[in-house]
Write a structure and sequence with these properties.
The chain is an alpha+beta fold and about 525 residues long. The chain is built from 14 helices and 23 strands.
Length: about 525
């Protein structure tokens, strides 16, 4: 994946003499409805004999269905999907070996357990789990799915360091890793599909999820799959509403055409509107890229001074509107592996005194002028660039912020026409940094003499600890981490149970959802 993101993403009546008669009639209507065969349950929020004023609020019902958007231009095969809209629906129909929680920690799903030793990850699968057609999940289905994932655009980066998979028994699969790195199970969140059902983009594979796909002509519906081991949901049916890629999802939701969608905020803007949200962490690192060929920035001390001059709290709050978490290393601060490390982020806080001392020791006592390029189509990043400009003035670095169109931005990167750039990279769930410090790094501006790549190879090989690698990174400072972005499940206020959300499982607790809808007068009377 490229190191920068693509362009972006009440009426009341007084009590009358007829009130008690009206209330009695209303009570009879409600009682009668219980025996009428109506599929929806009327929720009575107030006793008909209450002495309070009569409220003409709409009669509400619990709905057994919701509407979600699906791209009309994309496949519904998880191994051929390209749109964020469709990939957000994956977890409703398909389940992985391991889910990934908000700390990017693997939690068993179709897997029962795993062991890891000497480059071999042994996973015991739950063969009691069934596909929606009633057939049992086998190791062969896991291997079939793995091979598809290795060759898919969406999952191949996640599986970069897992080279192969083989069945060793009727319930065990062994994955071979390319490096003896920690926690490879973090990467095994690709969807498991039934063998021979996912070979083409037009195919809709068979899965084990809470819902299965029901197609009628060009229309698709997700229907409750009773063979899934998750609790039975109130929402039994999900209507998939076809939307063009240019749809403004907040607007579509406010119009009532859909009830929820997952927004990874990659567009660099947001709109609260008449909706609720549930946030989740993303593995998307936003960083300040550095051209180490620039004379002023060839010194690691100057790069460290820049690191200590940035107010990440302000960037998160003001530039990214709190849709981010502060980052002081290339690892997400809530990553389960790193949370037990020795690093105290307080020691990395804004420190102009330390930054000025570093500048002086590097021989820079006068103001220097440098250029920072940023993609003009992302408001979050433009705001962050301007924030950085203000901060660096405090240590004698005068920044000119240049906003560029996407084509001109990428061209400037390729030509080295910058001192700084605002970049972003989506890391795998296992926080593997090969896309930054591997042999095929997509990181611009790093000197060939930088030792961070060597240190990372040593870490992957098990020769040094994660702390030792991080020490090397902070010493060399090939890039300046700023934040990790957040995403959010945006949902209609008719959804009354607050959704829980993970970035790979945005509809994580959909089986707990209760959805209320207003009945029209005619429908209420008929019910």
């Amino acid at each position: 994946m490229k190191s920068t993101t693509a362009p972006e993403k009440q009426f009341q009546r007084k009590t009358s003499p007829l009130f008690k008669l009206s209330a009695a009639i209303l009570s009879l209507i409600i009682i009668a409805s219980c025996f009428s065969g109506c599929e929806k349950t009327v929720i009575a929020t107030e006793s008909p004999t209450s002495d309070r004023q009569f409220n003409n609020s709409p009669v509400l019902s619990v709905s057994e269905s919701i509407k979600l958007g699906v791209s009309e231009e994309d496949s519904f095969n998880p191994y051929f999907m390209t749109s964020d809209l469709n990939t957000g629906l994956i977890s409703l129909v398909y389940e992985p070996l391991f889910t990934v929680d908000d700390a990017f920690s693997p939690q068993p799903d179709l897997a029962l357990s795993y062991t890891y030793e000497n480059g071999s990850l042994t996973v015991k699968t739950d063969t009691s789990r069934l596909f929606s057609d009633g057939t049992a999940v086998s190791p062969q289905d896991v291997i079939y799915s793995f091979n598809l994932a290795k060759n898919s655009e969406y999952y191949k980066n996640e599986l970069l360091n897992i080279s192969s998979a083989s069945a060793v028994s009727s319930d065990t699969v062994v994955f071979t890793t390319a490096n003896n790195y920690a926690n490879p199970a973090d990467a095994l969140h690709f969807p498991i599909v039934k063998s021979s059902t996912a070979s083409t983009a037009d195919a809709v594979p068979t899965g084990t999820g809470l819902y299965s796909v029901s197609a009628s002509g060009e229309n698709m519906t997700l229907v409750y799959n009773p063979l899934c081991k998750k609790p039975e949901p109130t929402v039994k049916t999900i209507s998939l509403v076809k939307l063009p890629s240019s749809s403004t999802l907040f607007h579509v939701l406010e119009l009532g055409e859909i009830d929820a969608f997952f927004d990874d905020m990659s567009s660099g803007s947001y709109s609260q509107g008449n909706a609720s949200q549930s946030k989740t962490n993303l593995p998307n690192l936003v960083f300040l890229g550095i051209n180490s060929e620039s004379y002023s920035l060839s010194s690691a001390a100057v790069r460290q001074a820049v690191f200590y001059s940035i107010n990440r709290q302000s960037i998160v709050k003001n530039s990214f509107k709190n849709y981010a978490s502060e980052a002081y290393t290339p690892y997400h601060p809530q990553w389960h592996v790193f949370t037990g490390s020795k690093y105290d982020t307080d020691s990395f806080a804004l420190d102009y005194t330390k930054a000025k001392s570093l500048m002086t020791n590097a021989g820079f006592t006068d103001q220097i002028n440098l250029r920072l390029i940023v993609y003009s189509g992302n408001n979050f990043k433009v705001a962050a660039a301007k924030e950085i400009k203000e901060r660096l003035l405090n240590i004698g670095i005068n920044i000119t912020v240049t906003e560029l169109t996407w084509d001109k931005y990428t061209q400037a990167l390729a030509n080295g026409d910058y001192d700084f750039y605002l970049g972003e990279v989506k890391l795998p769930s296992d926080m593997n940094l090969s896309s930054l410090f591997g042999d095929s790094s997509v990181l611009y501006g790093v000197s060939a003499s930088d030792t961070t790549k060597t240190a990372y190879k040593e870490y992957l090989g098990g020769n040094i600890s994660i702390n030792a690698f991080t020490d090397s990174f902070l010493q060399n400072m090939p890039l300046v981490p700023l934040c990790f972005r957040s995403g959010a499940l945006v949902y209609s206020r008719s959804i009354k149970t607050a959704p829980d959300c993970d970035y790979l499982n945005p509809y994580k607790n959909i089986y707990e959802w209760t959805v209320e809808e207003a009945l029209t007068e005619a429908a209420s009377a008929k019910g």
